[in-house]
Specification:
Radius of gyration: 15 Å
Helix content: 25-40%
Order of helices and strands: EHHHHEEEHEHEEH
Organism: Hyphomonas hirschiana VP5
Strand content: 25-35%
Strand order of the largest sheet: 1-2-3-4-5-7-6
Distance between the termini: 18 Å
CATH class: Alpha Beta
InterPro entries: Acyl_CoA_acyltransferase, GNAT_dom
Structural class: alpha+beta
Keywords: Antibiotic resistance, Transferase
Number of domains: 1
Pfam families: Acetyltransf_8
Shape: globular
CATH architecture: 3-Layer(aba) Sandwich
Largest sheet: 7 strands, mixed
Protein name: Putative aminoglycoside N6'-acetyltransferase
Length: 173
């Protein structure tokens, strides 16, 4: 059973380890654009972001970030995002945990967190344009392609999951 808990500074060594794994680095885009100061970020409590550790029966296996697109301070998603729009990023920490359905379970838990706010009408994701496995994964969860977008030096595709699609069961694939 997968659960999500708040990431803390005690998770720093694990997150740093996962952040260096080839399967995580390969899909993260330009390292200079995307490198984080995890020690600093884990210590910051901001109302527009959640850092979560996914655990399988109490054992950490992945990471989830949920942000409010409009409130996020760098305005990564732009300044014209509708209120209460959310974006999700996930990692599976170790390569031998891929392909076991854990990412699907993690995303469904993240959907529940986002849509628990009745004002949230959609969730965005931005996989790299050449990450075809991620495109298939997100499409299987009910996300619809909005189109290409460049974030800094990275070419991405933006996908959206609407509350209506989530409610209709599109995420049960």
């Amino acid at each position: 059973m997968i659960t999500l808990r708040t990431a803390t500074t005690t998770d720093l060594p694990l997150i740093l380890h996962w952040d260096e794994q080839p399967h995580v680095r390969d899909v993260g885009g330009d390292p200079e654009w995307n490198d984080w100061n995890w020690e600093e970020e884990l210590g910051r409590d901001v109302p527009w972001r959640e850092f979560l550790i996914a655990e399988l029966n109490g054992r950490p296996i992945g990471f989830v970030q949920i942000i409010d697109c409009r409130e996020e301070e760098s305005h990564y998603w732009g300044t014209d995002c509708p209120e209460h729009s959310h974006a999700i990023d996930i990692w599976i920490g170790e390569a031998d945990e891929l392909g076991k359905g854990y990412g699907t379970q993690m995303m469904r838990l993240a959907f529940e967190r986002c849509f628990a706010n009745p004002l949230c009408q959609h969730i965005l994701i931005d996989p790299m344009a050449d990450n075809f496995a991620a495109h298939r994964f997100y499409e299987s969860l009910g996300f619809e392609l909005l189109g290409p977008r460049r974030f800094g030096p990275d070419a991405s595709l933006v996908y959206q999951l609407t509350r209506a699609a989530w409610r209709s069961g599109a995420t049960h694939a």
